[in-house]
Amino acid sequence: MKNYILILLIFCSFNVFGQDNKSEAGGPPKISELIGFWKKIELPNEDKINKENPWPQKYQWFAFYENGKVYSMMSDKDSNYSLKDLKETFSVLPKDKTPNYKLEGQFLTIDNKEIKDYQELWGVNLFAMDINDFLKKGNLMMTLDDGNGNVIYYRLLKRIE
């Protein structure tokens, strides 16, 4: 099982950092597919496949807005936040201090004007079909690049409807 997961994650990272073409399994999301609210799903052996963990809190929620803003919230405790809950939570955060994102093909960049020279480069892959019990159609795999083309962190997100 461990080898299967590793091979699958390698496939995902090649798919993300390879060509812009979509395959049967998925490909880069369109901006309309990215916009919305997401919850992080734990990957099997996550602590072993992630070379670094810049966000050690296990439970994470995200919102990508049409205006190019990305909001996030993290906790050590799980919660089943509704779309309404997340909209209310993120609406009180100051827009001028909120990071921006830009989607270009298979790459998503996030910057934060509050932190000098801060930038995250993510590969993104939206699954077009169910692969197994945790990689499902509509899930978004994000792979964080270390700046030298190496994936150091995997994040799997499920859309909150």
How would you describe the overall organization of this protein?
The protein is 20% helix and 34% strand. It is an alpha+beta fold. Strand 3 and strand 4 form a beta hairpin.
Question: Helices and strands in order, then pairings?
Answer:
Elements: H1 2-17, E1 26-27, H2 31-34, E2 36-41, H3 46-49, E3 59-64, E4 70-75, H4 83-91, E5 100-104, E6 107-111, E7 119-127, E8 140-145, E9 151-159
Antiparallel strand pairs: 1-7, 2-3, 2-9, 3-4, 5-6, 6-7, 7-8, 8-9
Unreliable stretches (pLDDT < 50, length at least 5) are 1-19
SSE succession: HEHEHEEHEEEEE
What do the pLDDT scores average to? 87
Give the amount of beta strand, in percent.
Answer: 25-35%
Protein structure class: alpha+beta
Helix content: 10-25%
How far apart the termini lie comes to: 30 Å
Biggest β-sheet, characterized?
9 strands, antiparallel
How many β-strand stretches?
9
Evaluate the radius of gyration.
15 Å
Shape annotation? globular
Count the helices. How many? 4
From the structure above, extract its key features.
161 residues; alpha+beta; nine-stranded antiparallel sheet; globular; disordered N terminus
Summarize the structure.
This protein is 20% helix and 34% strand. The protein is globular.
